[in-house]
């Protein structure tokens, strides 16, 4: 009898600690959605850059003014759609658990994610303006990964290892510039989908 | 066995007090309304439990004014954190036996 009560106490303590210090409404499904959107975006970017070239011979990335604008448009579209998808699924999860979507924990998470992310965005724009186009894809991976590592203290702990893998992919991308887009698709697309499914199974199913 | 029971703290037998301490040991500080939302209790209920914890010096109360409105922050004191950790360890020991 007594034991049952104390077991409940322990569960209460753990639940309150989690709810009060971490943002736990983050849905695995938002990861899957972001991953799918990223893969579509990467495909579109690929089509734009390597348009009308022979698949068997050496291909050169075509970087004209028009292509550049197209690419930035694709990037913005990917970002917007991932955010909308992420918010939608996360809100659904929050509602199900009767939690508020926008609370102190969410604020803390967003702020800590945004510091490296905004820095990275600016760095990418600078790099782009100096003409080092090949570094943009790996740099987005690196700064996104840093953002995740930084934010992981305030949400599900798995986010940390996801961030470390994004950083690793980004570093590889810096060394092998030609694989930038493929690594980008791997990080933002495949890894998001895999992580999303794993987290969905662990926390929501 | 006797030692374990000694470490179980009567101050944390109540669910609300247990909840307040759980939240305050993992957060630097929390205000009244956040605690209220988190624990789902009434104003009066929360106030009385906060009072009993602060008279024991387990939590500290920091009052300040934010936009001319009183804004009270609560934090766990080192004494409170210590007592709470002891309490949890005692529960764990008890459940192991």
UniProtKB/TrEMBL annotation, chain A:
Transmembrane segments: 23-46, 66-89, 109-129, 135-156, 168-195
Keywords (A to Z) from UniProt: Membrane, Transmembrane, Transmembrane helix
Keyword Transmembrane: yes
Protein name: Beta-carotene 15,15'-monooxygenase
Organism: Reichenbachiella ulvae
Automatic annotation (TrEMBL), chain B:
Domain Winged helix DNA-binding per the UniProt entry, residue ranges: 16-95
InterPro entries referenced in this protein's UniProt entry, alphabetically: WH-like_DNA-bd_sf, WH_DNA-bd_dom, WH_DNA-bd_sf
Pfam families noted in UniProt: HTH_34
PANTHER family: BSL7504 PROTEIN
Official protein name in the record: Transcriptional regulator
């Amino acid at each position: 009898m007594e034991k049952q009560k104390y077991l409940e106490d322990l569960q209460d303590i753990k639940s309150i600690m989690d709810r009060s210090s971490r943002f736990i409404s983050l849905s695995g499904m938002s990861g899957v959605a972001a991953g799918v959107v990223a893969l579509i975006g990467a495909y579109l970017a690929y089509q734009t850059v390597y348009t009308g070239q022979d698949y068997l011979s050496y291909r050169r990335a075509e970087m004209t003014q028009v292509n550049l604008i197209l690419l930035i448009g694709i990037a913005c579209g990917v970002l917007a759609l991932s955010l909308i998808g992420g918010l939608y699924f996360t809100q659904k999860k929050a509602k199900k658990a009767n939690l508020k979507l926008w609370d102190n924990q969410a604020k803390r998470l967003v702020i800590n994610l945004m510091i490296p992310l905004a820095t990275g965005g600016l760095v990418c724009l600078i790099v782009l303006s100096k003409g080092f186009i090949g570094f943009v894809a790996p740099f987005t991976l690196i700064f996104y990964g840093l953002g995740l590592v930084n934010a992981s203290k305030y949400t599900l702990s798995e986010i940390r290892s996801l961030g470390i893998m994004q950083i690793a992919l980004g570093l590889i991308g810096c060394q092998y510039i030609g694989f930038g887009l493929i690594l980008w698709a791997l990080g933002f697309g495949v890894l998001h989908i895999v992580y999303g499914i794993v987290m969905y199974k662990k926390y929501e199913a | 066995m006797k030692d374990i029971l000694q470490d179980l703290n009567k101050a944390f037998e109540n669910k609300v007090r247990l909840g307040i301490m759980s939240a305050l040991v993992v957060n630097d500080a929390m205000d009244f309304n956040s605690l209220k939302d988190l624990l789902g209790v009434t104003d009066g209920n929360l106030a009385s439990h906060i009072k009993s914890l602060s008279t024991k010096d387990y939590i500290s109360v920091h009052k300040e004014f934010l936009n001319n409105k009183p804004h009270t922050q609560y934090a766990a004191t080192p004494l409170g954190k210590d007592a709470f950790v002891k309490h949890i360890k005692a529960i764990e020991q008890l459940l192991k036996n």
